[in-house]
Amino acid sequence: MTEYIKVGNLQVASNLYRFINEQALPGSHLSGTQFWSDFEELIDDLYPENRSLLNKREKLQSQVDEWHESHASKEDHSYKEFLKEIGYLEEEVEDFAVTTSHVDEEITSQAGPQLVVPVDNARYALNAANARWGSLYDALYGTNVISGENGLEKGSSYNPLRGSEVVEYSKKNFLDQAVPFQGVSHREVCTYLIESGELIGRKANGEKATLEEPSQLIGYQGNREEPTAILLKNNGLHLEIQIDRNHPIGQSDDAGVKDVLMESATTTIMDCEDSVAAVDAEDKELVYHNLLGLMKGDLSESFSKNGKTVTRTLREDRSYTTPSGGTKTLHGRSLMFIRNVGHLMTTNAILDSNGHEIPEGIMDGVITSLVAKHDVLRKGGRQNSAKGSIYIVKPKMHGSEEAAFANKLFNRVEDMLGLERHTIKIGVMDEERRTTLNLKNCINEVKERIVFINTGFLDRTGDEIHTSMKAGAMIRKTEMKNSIWLQAYEKSNVTVGLGTGLQGHAQIGKGMWSMPDRMKEMLDQKGSQLLAGANTAWVPSPTAATLHALHYHTINVNEVQKEMANDPQDFTDQVLHIPTSPDQQWNEEEIKQELDNNAQGILGYVVRWVEQGIGCSKVPDINDVGLMEDRATLRISSQHMANWLHHGIVTNEQVEETLERMAIVVDQQNEGDPHYVKMAPNYNESVAFQAARSLIFDGVNQPSGYTEPILHRARIQAKAKKFSRTM
Fold first, then answer.
1. pLDDT grade for 723, boundaries at 50, 70 and 90
2. What is the reported pTM?
3. Which CATH architecture has domain 134-263?
């Protein structure tokens, strides 16, 4: 039972009130009395507009549903005109260029990988923040990039043959390509040294070579004759050749190289949204507590590893001697964004003057900015933004009015926290259909604070299915990536971003590689996102960030974007191509495969979310391939099943049978987890199973097809059930 403290006309959960007054406000230059008074006024002013925007979503969806139900032909050209008439498709604003200023170079000029991590897990958050630098040797050795055949197996102890293959790959496939010497391979170098401000590679016969591009040498550690580290730069990313002839790896290397350290995750999104399961004041306090530690630079987490207690903290900056004898300091940590929740959900952590739950997105905007102000005020140390900015990613906005509302919210937050205008920067996630079609207008509403746009296949597909739910049965999930609308959506995002002047001001991002165990495949495929104009893209782990960094050394994204900016196109008609199946000629086996795969993913994710509060999981698919699942992947799977159910491709009985059968499979997959709560055979008593069932059978009626309302109710029920058992 949540306990509340009366603050003015607000009722604030006692734990959250104490956190803000005792931890977040001290050192912020803010008075507690004034903070709560301003917070109450902000809620009273903005809550009605928040509600009005959500009502407009529902009204537009009803109009779209009615249109599809009354039009047999889905290729009817009147559809586009209809969307204009109802205000779904906005009249495009005049050309403009964004003017965002005081933005860190990790965003403006440095292309690189991006992590997304649940901030309610301190250990994961610290790992992600520290993933700015990663070992290439470890990333190669520990993944399938290096074959595990013909004596190259990983095994339980170090395999020197596999290690040699790692070194060969690093020098031949990376160093010789990214930072080549003139006429000499890094494999031939026996000594690295600095002479006359240049990097020299000396062969065993005494022959010396200089870099093809001498300016790539940025600095070194140790002394010139025997450096312990050499800092180089290529396409805006740094790498460090580490030398230690006494190290087990360095001993076996002619040049004493023990590792190649890669600048990896240049930015990280600390997530309060899709990858967390925060449903009440207790959960939200943990989210805010970890964020505060990250922004103050003092977050730490202790855990047991191999029988020893390990304490993890944020890494210090890295310092080097420059070729001219000066000092060069680089961030030791990834630049952190904070992803707030969207406009939809309310929270019982604070009740307004009428006793109603307040919008969670408004609460996130205020409190995450408050904790981030500590970074703005702090100078030096483990600082996040060198430019004094706060970076907030705002998800799940529908059209430019909602972007304008976010801008208004940030204006009000800046005023109440005593921050200069546009200190809070915004990332606009292009993951809803109305935002895709009106992206230029959305950017225009935040043109003085925008620092990020991206495409997200899964949430965007979930919205595509829900928006066009009444248009017909959707194509299979595996066919979506090659569909007309999706290809156009990916291109349109980059084109609009470049057309509004985002290059040099903001990141243009692409979505997640969802198979964390398949890194060779990622290396083979993910470079295409850079060629499509993305200067950042999501990866599922620090190891993946290190490997994805290889793409940025191969492809100069700045040059790609410059070339693309000269070829603007309008993709509206293609984006409006609805991915329904014209013939629906699926056989029984194909239908069963689709149901099984969707159901397994839904159940495997929901059972951990509801019963254990785990917001992001690696869930095996029907082929036993581990996929990173969050609420975005859940949205597409549940909406797809709801769509096929709605159009009679499958029956209620088929879905029920599939869910019960796949629940047994998921239970078996989780047998080794002592905290796991089984779903079978007591399906009616399983809170998680019933939640998964509701996501499908009530999927048509969920707002925008979102999963949060059902998940939150189920999680609160599961927590109460667990609490009652312990009493």
1. low
2. 0.97
3. Beta Complex (2.170)
